Amino acid sequence: MKKLLVCLAVLAVTLAFDLDDAEPEEIAPYTSYELRVYESAKWACHDEMRKRPKMYTSFMKLFGYITGENEKGQTINMTAPVTMMEEPLDGDANRYQMCFYIPAAHQLEPPKPTDPNVYIEVRPRLTVAARTFGGWVSKMREWVTRKDDLERDLKAAGEQGVDYTRFYGAGYDSPMKYKNRRNEVWFVVD
């Protein structure tokens, strides 16, 4: 029941607003991946430090932020992509960070989150090696499989300056979109 309510709420937000995307500049398309540049931008983020992420928890924290849980009580347009980053920590845990891109209308002064676990991150200009794929991604291991495939191809191609210690998963579609879904995995390139 809880997940149904979440899906309905996401649908309402998605239908009420046009998605405002983080727009990259494609600098080098290859057969199985492309290199892109994302300019510096602000993102609303939530972190989890654990062995396995609970993506639902992070999504709901960020969804709260864009539906008014911020100092101005403002509703903020849903954006794409939603990124999920996995970074190994010392020991058995990983850092899982989920972020929503802040739309252009709020980039200069995004409202401050009222939830202390949600924060605004200023991402520097990023060059990424990205691979796009379709379908549903519901578990972290599915992202990891795609990440492993991209890593293998980048190494085979001799790509230099790739940070393989962490990766991003990027989702572009509403949960209500069933066909022609767009997902990506990214590695940051120096």
Automatic annotation (TrEMBL):
Top-level lineage group: Eukaryota
Family note: Belongs to the HEBP family.
Matches recorded under Pfam families: SOUL (PF04832)
Swiss-Prot/TrEMBL keywords: Signal
UniProt lineage: Eukaryota, Metazoa, Ecdysozoa, Arthropoda, Crustacea
Signal peptide feature range: 1-16
Name used for this protein in its record: Heme-binding protein 2
